[in-house]
User: What shape does this take?
Amino acid sequence: MASFKGRYASTIDAKRRIKLPKKLREAVPASSDEHFVMGPGYDGCVFLYPADEWAKQEDKLRNLKVELAEHRFLERVFVPESEDVRVDRVGRLTIPERLLSLAQIKKEVLILGILSRVELWSPEVYGKYREQHKQTYEEAAERIFGS
Assistant: This one.
């Protein structure tokens, strides 16, 4: 089971590659064999799942009901935009152009370790997200976990 943590700044090279920080690469379960699935995330980011965590997401998607329009919509928007990616021998991942556009990532990229996944953000988009969510983590934790 992956346990990604931390916040890292990186840049994208001319071939749309980022270097995945060593601490994040070390957190990838051996069963994933440096294989990830990259796809659209929530709130303007890109999700990056190691293969074993992607399998859990895929199980959820397979349990959707094709008879329900909202389920079909989610499948049609999320799955085709997702893509298998591998870490190269020097620790880099190539980000598909459509996902860079979706997340408004230009040159700078903010990499967040979020337990079972990694999120890739445009620093500007992440800044706006934080501005829109003024609460502190203590306030959120109290509401979510109780007093």
In short: Helices lie at 22-26, 51-62, 69-78, 97-102, 123-132, 137-145. The first helix runs from residue 22 to 26. The mean pLDDT is 92.
